[in-house]
Write a structure and sequence with these properties.
Number of helices: 40
Radius of gyration: 38 Å
Number of strands: 0
Helix content: over 70%
Structural class: mainly alpha
Oligomer: single chain
Shape: elongated
Length: about 675
């Protein structure tokens, strides 16, 4: 049994430099355990046990990944934050590391039982982890592993290629690789390939044919792919790997992926990742590729820039997608209509995410310049022509660009921000869009909640809908239950207010902040409805005394009492209110009004005076308070006091005129008072 001391060094490097995640300790401990076991020369049984532990930790990481995504739902801002978090990095590393350690175990197992499938599985594992450039330690360790796999298969020269990669740096890994190279040198002299700086077009054609033939006939073996890669590097190094040759090469991306063919290798990896909907991996590979090539070549590869933009949009990186689709980046493409549609899709996504007016205008401008179904649908939706939008949706339900638009997300955002009348119009189109969502999105908590909220505006039996709400509330994440509670209260407000009264009456304090805000919102909107007073009183009992929420509910209660003609009760409660809320202008106003209504002129006049003194002189509220003072003094027959208020209006001609008119209407002459003042 050959033991490789460097495995643990690789592991330590990766963990110390890159991993910050909840699973890192378990992964590190298992790595140490595997390294120690391999140093001792494990049996088949030992290896099987270790692989079971690897599989178990891998499953834990996969479950953690699924749970984390479920927690944030489909909120693209939170998803992007998750994908950039240390926790997500740790999960990704754990999955990669488990694949890496399994490859070493399989290689050990092959050396014990000579089962070819073990060797091939080990090689595939290393080829997978070597593509994970965000974990350079694993990449270099995989190169080392592939070198040992090639030795096990009797392919010495191929092993040398991998060891050469690792040996390039002066670190423990590099020194180990150089030791292995020295051993190989003792067995066989290495034959080096001639490096050319320029070739003719005819020579390039021959080299390309050789490379593609190797991929065609031997691509499934590392020998064929590696030798093809040598020829492709010759083309790349001499500037002969044109866009046409790259397009032909893409037919063999599964065979060539993972092999060093220069910057184009990243493009091949990106296209492969995109084909398998590994969007974030694709994004990283495209970034590296376009950064590595010059401006002239970037223009030649503009069609792949569209692929890059597609991956960015699918990853939720909308701003970067728009940058890559801008005119100063893309001068010309083979499919201008696809470019226009991608720009529309990116702009639509940007507005659906942000709701910013600038994004809205960009989207309007783009859609106005196009005559496609997607553009017409966008125009109708943004212009609130919901019937037209709905008709276009039905008519073009199979159009790939219409179906790609995140229309449900936009309607979802608009729905919760809109007034009730607009929501009633949005609900039918939103429900139609929901029916077209893929199952994985349609079953996401946010989508189920949005759909249920929209259903609440459609005609349906009260008991049936409430039952569905309860079932859904029991299954979604806790964060969505507040939305469903608000949906329930709104539904009861519209369809069954008597049940709303009963529900609020049956509640016990304390309320959650969301419950409080939801109930307060709907109770304060009940107006003069017959059940309004009862539900207001019930809510007051649930609110924290002295809180702003309690103040709002009490103010409504006082106003309702006054409208019902129970002025004395309104006055009594308002008096208590100004004691509990001495700094509240609203409380002082309702007290003044209620005091005036029951003939407590002194209390009312003093309250209006306090109000006026707290306001800027000359403001409309200040004038109103002074005029109410005036009316109270006139009604009380306090002529001198009424006339005295004229001094507050000096310099305000309109106010002086209004005061004089009211004094005249009360048959009050202020000449005697003016004489005294003079």
């Amino acid at each position: 049994m050959i033991r490789w001391r460097t495995c643990l060094l690789i592991w330590t490097f990766c963990v110390s430099s890159l991993v910050q995640a909840d699973l890192r300790d378990d992964a590190f401990d298992l790595g140490q355990k595997i390294d120690a076991a391999r140093q001792q020369g494990p049996t088949i049984e030992d290896l099987q046990t270790l692989m079971e532990e690897v599989a178990s930790l891998r499953d834990q990481a996969q479950a953690e990944r699924i749970n984390r995504e479920k927690e944030v739902g489909e909120n693209e801002v939170l998803l992007e934050r998750l994908y950039r978090s240390p926790t997500w990095s740790g999960i990704g590393f754990t999955l990669a590391a488990m694949r890496y350690w399994r490859s070493w175990l399989l290689l050990d197992q092959y050396r014990l039982n000579s089962v070819q499938t073990d060797l091939e599985a080990a090689r595939r594992g290393f080829q997978t982890t070597l593509a994970l450039i965000v974990y350079p330690g694993l990449v270099r360790g995989s190169w080392l592993g592939l070198g040992h796999a090639e030795i096990a298969a009797g392919r010495v020269e191929e092993a040398r290629i991998w060891f050469d990669r690792v040996a390039a740096t002066d670190d423990p890994l590099g020194r180990q690789a150089r030791e292995e190279l020295n051993l190989l040198d003792a067995l066989r002299a290495r034959t080096k390939r001639e490096v050319k700086t320029s070739i003719t077009d005819a020579e390039a054609d021959v080299i390309e044919r050789e490379a593609l033939a190797l991929l065609e006939r031997h691509g499934k073996s590392l020998d064929g792919a590696s030798r093809a890669a040598e020829r492709l590097r010759d083309l790349e190094n001499t500037g002969s790997l044109s866009i046409e040759r790259v397009l032909r090469l893409m037919h063999y991306r599964d065979e060539i992926i993972g092999h060093d063919i220069g910057p184009v290798g990243y493009l091949v990896s990106a296209e492969n990742a995109l084909a398998y909907e590994q969007f974030y991996t694709a994004v990283e590979k495209y970034r590296i590729f376009f950064k590595a090539i010059d401006h002239q070549r970037q223009q030649q590869f503009s069609d792949f820039r569209l692929q890059f933009a597609s991956a960015l949009i699918a990853s939720g990186l909308i701003e970067e997608a728009q940058q890559n689709l801008s005119a100063n980046i893309i001068a010309k493409v083979g499919d201008p209509q696809r470019l226009a549609n991608l720009r529309l899709l990116a702009a639509f996504s940007a507005f659906a995410n942000s709701g910013e007016l600038k994004s809205r205008q960009t989207l309007l401008d783009l859609s106005a310049a196009m005559s496609t179904p997607a553009a017409h649908f966008t125009q109708s939706l943004l212009n609130a022509d919901f019937n037209q939008a709905h008709n276009l949706l039905m008519e073009h339900s199979t159009d790939v660009w219409v179906t790609q638009l995140p229309a449900f997300e936009l309607v979802y955002r608009e729905f919760y921000a809109a007034a009730l009348s607009k929501r009633r119009n949005l609900a039918p189109i939103g429900l139609s869009l929901y029916q077209q969502l893929p199952d994985d999105i349609a079953q996401a908590s946010w989508a189920l909640v949005a759909q249920m909220s929209m259903q609440g505006l459609m005609d349906q039996p009260v008991d049936t809908y409430l039952s569905r709400l309860e079932v859904l509330s029991a299954t979604v994440a806790i964060g969505y239950r507040d939305v469903l509670y608000a949906t329930r209260i709104e539904f009861l407000h519209r369809r069954a207010p008597e049940r709303l009264v009963a529900e609020i009456t049956s509640l016990l304090p304390p309320l959650s902040d969301k419950q409080r805000d939801t109930l307060l919102h709907h109770v304060l909107k009940c107006g003069l409805k017959s059940w309004c007073k009862e539900v207001t009183v019930a809510l007051i009992k649930l609110l924290q005394p002295g809180s702003q929420s309690a103040l709002f509910a009490l103010l409504q209660h006082i106003r309702l009492l006054a409208k019902e003609g129970d002025a004395m009760a309104a006055y009594r409660i308002a008096g208590e209110l100004i004691v509990d809320y001495p700094d509240s202008g609203d409380a002082l106003r309702v007290f003044a009004d209620s005091a005036a209504a029951v003939g407590r002129t002194g209390d009312a006049e003093a309250a209006y005076a306090r109000i006026a003194e707290s306001l800027p002189i000359g403001s409309s509220e200040w004038r109103t308070a002074r005029l109410k003072q005036l009316d109270l003094r006139i009604d009380a027959g306090a002529s001198d006091a009424a006339c005295e208020l004229r001094r507050y209006a000096q310099g305000d001609a309109d106010l002086i005129e209004t005061i004089n008119q009211r004094l005249a209407a009360g048959d009050i002459a202020c000449n005697r008072l003016q004489a005294k003042m003079g």
